[in-house]
Amino acid sequence: MTKLKKHIHLSGICGTAMASLAGLLQLQGHRITGSDKAAYPPMSDLLRGLGIPVLEPYSETNLEPRPDLVVIGNALSRGNPEVERVLDERIPFTSMAALLREEFLVGRESLVVAGTHGKTTTTSMLAWIYQFASDALPELEPSFLIGGVAENFGTSFQLRPTRTFIVEGDEYDTAFFDKGPKFLHYFPDGLILTHVEFDHADIYADLEAVKTAFKRLVNLVPRRGLIVAYDGNANVTECVSHALCPVERYGFSESADWRLRNLRHEAGLTRWEVWRGDALWAELEMQLAGEHNALNATAAAALAAGRGIGKDAIVAALKSFKSVKRRLEVRAEVGGVTVIEDFAHHPTAIRETLRALRSVFPHSCLWAVLEPRSNTLRRKVLENELVESLRLADRVVLAGVYQQQRIPDAERLHPEDVVRRLNAEGTEAELLADADAIVDGIAPRLESGDVVAILSNGGFDGIYEKLPARLRERFPEGGKA
Length: 481
Hints:
Blueprint: E1 7-11, H1 16-27, E2 31-35, H2 43-50, E3 54-55, E4 69-72, H3 81-89, E5 93-94, H4 96-105, E6 109-114, H5 119-133, E7 143-150, E8 155-158, E9 164-169, E10 173-175, E11 178-181, E12 190-193, H6 207-218, E13 226-230, H7 234-240, E14 247-251, E15 258-266, E16 269-276, E17 279-286, H8 291-306, H9 311-319, E18 329-334, E19 337-342, H10 347-360, E20 366-370, H11 383-390, E21 395-398, H12 415-424, E22 428-431, H13 435-442, E23 451-455, H14 463-474
Parallel strand pairs: 1-2, 1-4, 2-3, 4-5, 6-9, 6-12, 7-9, 12-13, 13-14, 14-15, 19-23, 20-21, 20-23, 21-22
Antiparallel strand pairs: 7-8, 10-11, 15-16, 16-17, 18-19
Helix pairs in contact: 1-2, 5-8, 5-9, 6-7, 8-9, 10-11, 13-14
């Protein structure tokens, strides 16, 4: 690893992976600066806590004094003033994924968690299992980079002198000069593959292109490695079919190597059994709700066990696992109304989030408040799947499409069509333009016992703070609605 201390500037520093990389580089003793167009929690809070300045907006002057190296985030492209200055002056530059490998992964055991859904939570679970086990075996304490703030750690990154580095493997492209997925830089010794579905419609032409990317990742795992793969998705099966290392499947089918049985949510906990063949391997429990989270936990348990961590430590770690910021996170309880934030931004993730909330709040009126913000959700390619997912809510509120002018009209999701279809099929739905209109529209109608799930992969114009604040005005004593 590089010993010379440098001034490293990260353009696009508020991305989850970029902010985490900034923290890792700071731990190495580098001087870190960064810039972005709009900083919002949780990464803006994390960077503030680290004392790393975030310059807004992008500007050529942000590169003064001239840094030794610029890390260019994948949201930046030609025309960005910082990109143009880097190219004009030939300032050394790289990508987040390439620098992560060069500085932190070479010479370590790389454990990668990949998949269209569930990777942030699963990465957090795997890191916590290793951390818990290190109480008895300090050499197991992991370094990690996670695309979210893991609540057990209070951070999204950790650097230790030990061998294991756990990293969330993102299938999104690396940079404007490297259009391959980030995870191809990570060369996994162990791999978890959760789901493979069509996503990132801005960079993948179709599902076949997505599968090709994951097949290339599988092809990087050495013969001595291990792949733990979900068995309930035909695309995952196809992607691991030619692996040259052992592959262990997890899921609900009788053929799964790690089989979930008797899943239930009771007394505020999720409990289930994990079987291996005809034998009960363990009874697991955790605080998180949802079938998808039980699957995530089982995947983390399987890879940890396959790398030699004992069953007792795995069971105890999952029992004490908390969550990840922005994943089914309760933001407020005011007047009997529960406001929950979730990062879900794909129809499958939305479906699983709403199913999980149904299991926890079976008798509540469930509101789904959705901002179509991701590059896939802003397009109509998955409109049918989105309608089916949102039908799990009692009431649906859609915001306008984020930066809709950037999506060609023929490709763009038209939320009024989603609202019309939901109403026609018996689910009460409405379109309200933005966060302020949504708060104005629903705050007076919320009643005690209602649950509001706010779904977005962005800041959603501060709605996570605005709605609770309005409810506190309505119920200053915290009384029931």
